[in-house]
Each structure stands twice: as structure tokens, then as C-alpha cells.
Amino acid sequence: MRTGARYAVITGASRGLGKYFARALAARKQNLILVARSKDKLSSLASELRDAHEILAQPLELDLGSPGAGLKLAQKLHEGNFRTELLVNNAGFGELGEFLKLSLERQLQMIHLQNTAVVELTYQLLPAMIEAGHGGIINVSSMAGFQPVPYAAIYSATKSFLTTFSMALREELRPSVKVVTVCPGRLRADPEDTEAQEKRQKVPGGQQRHEDVVNETLKKFDSGGGLVIPGRINRLTVRGQRLMSLNAVPKIVARISKS
């Protein structure tokens, strides 16, 4: 570690949007802390980015889906004297199925990962950003957070929490700390991830490229922060939902989700 070096912390960095955020930020000469459960994938990505962009890239293996994991990560960053200037809360997963037929343990992991860990990390890392007078947070939410989603009830609820928390925080923190809330729809299968390809083929809806989502997000970050809904169709969908009754939306989504 170089004395005085500043880092971006990216959770869920070993695959999907996290990996693409890492590559885009590395191209900007941003030093990185890469966090995920997969040690081998993290180490490979860190090596790739160090060689390609001559930056510092530190892999950190940690499961953020367990209770108190956000606090544990913050402590590790403090002990390593890693000065965080950007936090990318990207780690997340979803489970499809009826609430009572899905594992309670797995659904609680979703809450810990997508809500509790985000709050813990944000609370612990924000003071240093505020003291420095600059910094940023990028929260990766989802289109699922704009409405109840039957058969993905906990997932949509966690993303709704993340969206409202993130957007409220932006108003509290600006202009010193920039906060971006990005709500992508269905992403194209990552050609580098065979497992993701198999899973996403079963989910209906349009597709977006990881690179496009990341580019739109960083563009919004550069302009001061705010809400990003990548894709024209997604933006129109959100506007259209506002014209419908609150009871009608979950009924429509339930028919789509169940099929």
C-alpha cells in the first residue's frame, strides 16, 4: 500500500456489474479494494487491473450476507489504513418463488446483504469523506425497487429500501459527498460468466449491457450524483406505473412473475 493512496471500495466485485465498475474505475486510474466471496476471481481481476492500468488493486474475500459483515469490512479497511473516497455498494442477489416456499435463511441473507451491510458500510465510511470535503457513494439498486414484485417479494423490498435510502442520503450529503442511485433492469448475460448466462435466460424482459449501465452511472456521478434509470424503455415504464392505481401494479407484475 502506498502512503496517502485513496481507494474505491467495490462490493460484489468478482462478477457482473461489480467487475465492470472495477474495470471502468481502473481505467480512470482509481485504486481499488475489491470485495466478494470468490478469492480466486478477485485475485485474477486485481492482477488484471494492476497490469493494465498501473494502479493499486487489493482483493478482499468476505461474505457480506452474514450479520455484521458490513462492520467487519469497515474494520478491515480501518486496520489496513485504506483511505476510501468512493464506495460502490453493488453486491446483491435475488431469489424467485413464493415467500413461504423459499428458504428463510436465504431471504434473510438478501436483507443483510442488500440493506444492512449497505447501511453499516455507509455509516462507517461516510465521516472520513465528509471530513475530507469530498467523496462518493454509488448504490446499485434495481427496477424491481419501484413496485412490489410478487414471487420476488423480499428482493423487491430490499431494492425499494435501497433506492429510497440512497436518494434521501443524496440530499443530506450534497454537495460535499456525491451519491448516485442506479436502477438497472435486466442485464444481458455476461459472456465471461457461464453460470449467469444460464440463470438469466429464464427471466423475461429487455436486456442492457453492463458497460452501458456503468457508463451512465459514472456520467451521473461526474455531474454531481442523482438517480439513474438506464434505458429509455425502463424510464417510460417507471413513469407509466405512476399513472396506475397502487393496487393494479402488483396484480399485473404477479401475472408476469408467475408465468
Give an overview in words.
- The chain is an alpha/beta fold.
- Helix content is 50%, strand content 14%.
- It contains nine helices and seven strands.
- It has helices at residues 16-27, 39-53, 69-79, 104-132, 153-173, 194-200, 210-222, 232-241, 248-258; strands spanning 6-11, 31-36, 57-61, 83-89, 136-140, 178-182, 226-228.
- A seven-stranded parallel sheet has the order 3-2-1-4-5-6-7, with helices on both faces.
- Helix 1 packs parallel to helix 2, helix 3 (69-79) packs parallel to helix 4 (104-132) and helix 4 (104-132) runs parallel beside helix 5.
- Residues 200-205 have low confidence and may be disordered.
Give a count of the beta strands, DSSP E runs of length 2 or more: 7
Integer average pLDDT: 91
Helix content: 40-55%
Characterize the biggest β-sheet.
7 strands, parallel
Uncertain segments are: 200-205
Radius of gyration: 18 Å
Distance between the termini: 51 Å
Widest beta sheet: strand line-up: 3-2-1-4-5-6-7
Portion in beta strands: 5-15%
The coarse overall form would be globular
Question: What is the N-to-C order of secondary-structure elements (H for helix, E for strand)?
Answer: EHEHEHEHEHEHHEHH
Helix-and-strand structural type: alpha/beta
Number of helices: 9
